[in-house]
Design brief:
Uridine Diphospho-n-acetylenolpyruvylglucosamine Reductase, domain 2, Uridine Diphospho-n-acetylenolpyruvylglucosamine Reductase, domain 3, Alpha-Beta Plaits, 5 domains, 21 strands, globular, binds flavin-adenine dinucleotide
């Protein structure tokens, strides 16, 4: 699609499908064209906000006919610029925010059917109102959409107990890259009918089709929760505490988050309403949470016994147990503000990595030392979901230095980190996906046979190569030859 007349014809078709008020052009597109981290700004022919699955299908068909690239977008909170169009101005951004209905809740089957544009927090609230828990939980839950969560196979803070988005999903409705509607909204916990398309579309980051609805699993609401912040002297002690907490609490351990003091200091500096309820000085903090399905007394006694044993064993030096829901929320706010505080601090090389928990102390010791040697003055604002072996291994520019100098060395720095991840048999993308920022890393660090299979899947399901081109796989690796 190159000529002005075919672009005008496509815009006219899109207006006919979604209604003129829901087809944004020109300056009105601006809020949808820059990624959350403000690293990439693209251009688009239009931003379309369809109101139904049929409208999504018709938008995809119209784009296909005119050869216009399609960029699905949810809440635009992704960390790897996956929902941002390129600079050509040819793409149509399909933003799902109007499709936010909860279609049905089946309390007996513990399932719920929701449209892709529902804000995650609204979905959690709807489940709670029905007396159930939808456990997916992350810092962006007030603005990310469930379709985006599924497209990125989001993780978050409860993976330890409930699994990531893929494990919370029973069925999907998808508009395929060919413009067909696949109704896979089954609410079954067993279904071995052929290849698992659901699991293929989940985590495909908008490169294979557009998720329009999902059947999700619900769980019993916990009767009582206990939350604590503990200070620990080393990452090895934090890993020992994790093993102790797993053994003591089993499935009741629902959160185990690690924060370096560099990360908590950033929160205290950039979010003046926050405070650390422990004496400063510890190099690491752990946020633990247990959820009990029996009673508040049982929750309290098991949790306190765990912390007392950890203190005695020297795994923690101090701990603050939340005595109210407000105090518990304040502890979680501290943890969830880190991403915002890091963004406010300045240039940061971000790495979303996973490594077997047993190998994390060795990884951090050796990689921190290498970084200090090669890039003097950089600061490791490490935090993350230690219970899942997932760290946000964030390296900040040296304090008081110009951003430009750090931008120049970021590529070398990230290569050092990802080489170390590979040497520790880890993954260079634990929960945020590949998007447009990590395509070169995927090519560099993934198994070549796997990469070939990924390219063949892309060609088979998106033969025109129009579905979020350049994301996950580089464009030249996606489009079918000839
Ligand atoms: C403060 C903060 C904390 C965060 N914490 C976490 C965390 O703990 N765990 C975690 O995993 N992530 C986290 N994230 C990252 C982000 O919130 C998640 O990746 C989230 O799942 C993205 O949802 P979204 O609706 O914003 O998607 P978007 O950013 O809009 O899109 C993300 C990707 O999905 C595709 N996409 C979106 N909707 C659809 C659809 N309906 N069909 C097909 N493709 C689609 C897009 O094309 C893009 O490739 C955090 C982000 C912030 C800002």
């Amino acid at each position: 699609m190159t000529s002005a007349s075919s672009q005008a014809a496509l815009l006219e078709r899109l207006r006919g499908i979604a209604g003129a008020a829901h087809v944004l052009v020109g300056d009105a597109c601006a809020p949808y064209l820059t990624d959350w981290r403000k690293l990439v700004t693209g251009r688009a022919l239009a931003v379309v906000r369809p109101g139904s699955t049929e409208q999504v299908r018709d938008v995809v068909r119209a784009c296909l006919e005119q050869g216009a690239p399609i960029v699905p977008q949810g809440g635009n909170t992704g960390q790897v610029a996956g929902a941002t169009p390129d600079g050509s101005g040819r793409a149509v951004v399909v933003q799902l925010g109007r499709m936010k209905r909860i279609r049905s809740i089946d309390v007996e089957n513990d399932t719920l059917v929701v449209e892709a544009g529902c804000v995650l927090q609204d979905l959690q609230d709807a489940a709670r109102a029905a007396g159930r828990l939808f456990p997916l939980s992350l810092g962006a839950e007030g603005s990310c959409l469930i379709g985006g969560n599924l497209a990125t196979n989001a993780g978050g803070t409860q993976v330890l107990r409930y699994g990531n988005a893929r494990e919370l999903t029973l069925g999907l409705e998808v508009v395929t890259a060919d413009g067909e509607i696949w109704n896979g909204l089954r609410a079954l916990r067993k279904d071995n009918t052929g290849y698992d398309l659901r699991d293929l579309y989940i985590g495909s980051e908008g490169t294979l089709g557009i998720i329009t609805a999902a059947t999700l699993k619900l769980f019993p609401l916990p009767v009582a929760q206990r939350t604590a912040l503990a200070a620990t002297g080393s990452i090895a002690q934090a890993v020992a505490l994790l093993a102790r907490a797993r053994a003591a609490l089993g499935a009741d351990l629902t959160g185990f988050e690690l924060m370096s003091s560099v990360a908590t200091d950033l929160v205290l500096r950039h979010c003046p309403d926050q405070r650390l309820p422990l004496a400063p000085g510890a190099p690491w903090f752990v946020l633990l949470e247990s959820s009990d399905t029996e009673s508040a007394e049982r929750a309290a006694s098991r949790f306190e016994a765990l912390l007392a044993a950890a203190l005695e064993a020297g795994e923690i030096q101090d701990a603050a147990i939340a005595e109210s829901i407000e105090q518990s929320r304040a502890l979680w706010r501290l943890r969830e503000s880190i991403t915002l505080a890091v963004a406010a601090e300045g240039q940061c090389a971000k790495h979303d990595i996973s490594i077997a928990t047993s190998r994390i102390p060795g990884f951090i010791a050796s990689t921190d030392a290498l970084l200090r040697q090669r890039f003097p003055g950089v600061r490791s604002a490490t935090f993350g979901h230690l219970g899942d072996g997932n760290l946000h291994y964030n390296i900040l520019q040296p304090a008081g230095t110009p951003a430009a100098g750090f931008v120049e060395v970021q590529q070398d720095l990230s290569r050092l980190v990802h080489d170390a991840v590979r040497d520790h048999a880890g993954s260079i993308s634990a929960e945020q996906g590949i998007g447009g920022l990590r395509t070169a890393d995927l090519q560099a660090y993934e198994d070549p046979v796997k990469l070939d299979l990924l390219r063949r899947i892309k060609r088979a399901l998106d033969p025109a190569g129009l579905m979020n081109p350049g994301k996950v796989l580089p464009v030249h690796g996606c489009v079918s030859p000839g």
